[in-house]
Amino acid sequence: MLELLRARLPAIGDDSAVVEGLLLCADACVAGVHADLSLVGVDDLGWKALAASVSDIAAMGGQPVAALVTVSGTVDLALLYDGLLAAAEEFGCPVVGGDLSAGDGLVVSVSVVGRCPDGAEPVWRSGAQAGDTLFVTGGLGASAAGLAMLQSGRGRAARDLVAAHRRPRARLAEGQAARQAGATAMIDLSDGLGIDLWRLADASEVGVVLERAPAFPGASKAQALGGGEDYELLFAAPDRRRVATVFGRAGLRSPLPVGRCTADAGERRFGDGELPRAGWQHDFPVTNTPSAGVS
Amino acid sequence: MLELLRARLPAIGDDSAVVEGLLLCADACVAGVHADLSLVGVDDLGWKALAASVSDIAAMGGQPVAALVTVSGTVDLALLYDGLLAAAEEFGCPVVGGDLSAGDGLVVSVSVVGRCPDGAEPVWRSGAQAGDTLFVTGGLGASAAGLAMLQSGRGRAARDLVAAHRRPRARLAEGQAARQAGATAMIDLSDGLGIDLWRLADASEVGVVLERAPAFPGASKAQALGGGEDYELLFAAPDRRRVATVFGRAGLRSPLPVGRCTADAGERRFGDGELPRAGWQHDFPVTNTPSAGVS
User: DSSP states of B138-191 as a string?
Assistant: First the structure.
């Protein structure tokens, strides 16, 4: 069904749309789908809703300008805004407007407008070249591992993992450093390294060989490969030394090389096997509700 | 509760936020709250969701640049996008991105980025002056009257009213003409003339005397005053002749004078009585859901 929409909305297909030099993106965060409110707070849901959209700006190498937030449902608004505004402060992305409405459940939709500083070109998903090295900006699987600890009642024993799940971070500085270091393609790891690497490879029409999926301490290999919601960045760049230099100069930890791009556009390899499409697959229920005519 | 949010989000309080010369606004359209899907189609809901946000740009005297749409719930997406994209075409506001998610019910959230042409200053709610004439850009109550006809099964006998309800129009040309004609304050009539005039008067710190509430043919006086969702514009301007000239030159019907602004900032008069706060009052359910700690 997403394919149907892509056909009708040709501008869609990257982390953010680019219009008149502006980066534009939006995410909906739904209680029970994107956050289990028996395990995390409504303030955490608010934080995550904003962080997820800001991450889409980070994945273009941009910085946020402002956010709009619509809320529908029944909620402790003050608590929700505690989280939203804490994230807004953290990521330098003021909430400037929005809308409130009644509704079933709780849906928090966040749109973010951003731009690349000094009119620089954003980094798309589609520019990777054969020979580029693939990097991730940090260890993976922490959010999934944190959720698993919460679900098993062991959250207190794993504060770092739980924090990664409750308050994910948009990697704005890393995204801009990657752009400055000559990144040819970039995507944020919102759904999982396996599926998101497939997306980058498909968009760039290159092959990819993933050599390793570096796990955050305490996360399993499966969580690192398919956990999703880490919001670390995955990017391709031709010059490993330049990447190390630019990140070092910015005071950022060096990104981790995880593989390479190849000329065989059909190649999707992980070690000796096939790269699994591991991660959160959008499962959007679609029905055919009748359209009422004029009665 | 909105007051609590306004205190925490000082930028909120006009139809659109203005950031770095951009107009930014967002609206959530919820099935069962903003549209009765037993009476109108999902395509109509899509149209209305986009039109309502574009109308907020019109109310600043701006024009839309692009829209972002998030959809959560179970829906005939192709039909929803029929309406969304028809409105996008009609209002010159391409949908460039968004998000899809599972969820209860159906929530369509639309954010629009706009700007004023040639860097012109937008028109706020807050600039009306004593002595200004109040205008509306057309007859009111059509949407409420159309809904009433649908509810009573007489939709076929009132196609104009039903069309006004199902496919409301954002008054972009009128908003820009009002700005060019020296409008000092403007608001779109999304909630109803009574309540929206209160808002304009409060923001501008002027008194207002409403002399008439012009009804769309077939709409009642009560529907004209409090029906809401007409998306006509209400504006204040000092020079009636200039207003008539600019609208005439643009090929637009002349806006209808409905009253005047006065120096008594507490005055809220309709004819010989008090101006009723007639219209859709946002009734947002708020509960205190506990925030889960780290378990």
Answer: S-B-HHHHHHHHHHTT-GGG-HHHHHHHHS----HHHHHHHHHTT-SEEEE-SS
Joined tokens for residue A180: 């400055």
Q: Encode pLDDT of A57-67 as tens digits.
A: 999 999 999 99
Question: Is it true that domain B12-119 has CATH number 3.30.1330.10?
Answer: yes
For A102, which of B78, B85, B285 is closest by C-beta distance? B285
What does the domain layout of chain A look like in residue ranges?
2-119, 133-274
- Say if residues A29 and A67 touch (Cβ distance below 8 Å): no
CATH 3.90.650.10 fits B133-274, yes or no: yes
Identify the CATH class of A2-119: alpha beta
- In angstroms, the Cα distances linking B168 to B47, B52, B67, B290 are 8, 8, 17, 40
- Residue listed under structure tokens 């009636």: B240
Q: What is the per-residue pLDDT across A163-178, written as a single tens digit (0 to 9) for each?
A: 999 999 999 999 999 9
* B106-115 β-sheet, strand order: B17-19, B22-30, B106-115, B63-73, B95-101
Nearest CB to A102 within list B27, B30, B288:
B30
Per-residue pLDDT, A2: 53
* pLDDT at B295 (0 to 100): 24
Name which of B1, B29, B96, B162 to mutate to probe chain A: the one with the most chain A Cβ atoms within 10 A of its Cβ: B96
Q: What ipTM score was computed for the predicted complex, to two decimals? A: 0.89
